[in-house]
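Severity: low
Component: inverse-folding endpoint
Summary: output formatting inconsistent between runs
Steps to reproduce: submit the following structure tokens with default settings.
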């Protein structure tokens, strides 16, 4: 089920990107580059804009709902007994003894020895 929902999420996200790019902005945007300008000739400019706005709203809603479903119901939950990698590293360092430097014998100066 997780794989299926993830595949649907991927398809919805690609469709959402395409629909957003097809919308014409004030400066023309990418709609003319990808053929968005010719879509307006088929449906009429106003109907095309309404269709693209409505498609964007629906796809964005589906995207958000699927994201929440996957996140809430299908991803593994953390348990209280499991520590993160950082916490494990901190406990390992705290329990290992700190190596001691070997003590050095005092260096005698030539004035003291003679």
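Observed output (run 2 of 3):
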């Amino acid at each position: 089920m997780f794989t299926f929902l993830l595949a649907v999420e991927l398809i919805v996200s690609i469709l959402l990107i395409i629909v957003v790019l097809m919308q014409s902005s004030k400066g023309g945007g990418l709609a003319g580059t990808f053929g968005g300008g010719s879509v307006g000739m088929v449906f009429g400019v106003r109907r095309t804009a309404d269709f693209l706005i409505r498609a964007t709203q629906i796809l964005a809603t589906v995207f958000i709902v699927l994201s929440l479903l996957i996140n809430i119901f299908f991803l593994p939950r953390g348990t209280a007994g499991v520590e993160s990698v950082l916490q494990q590293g901190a406990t390992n360092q705290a329990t290992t003894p700190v190596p001691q430097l070997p003590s050095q014998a005092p260096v005698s100066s030539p004035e003291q020895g003679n």
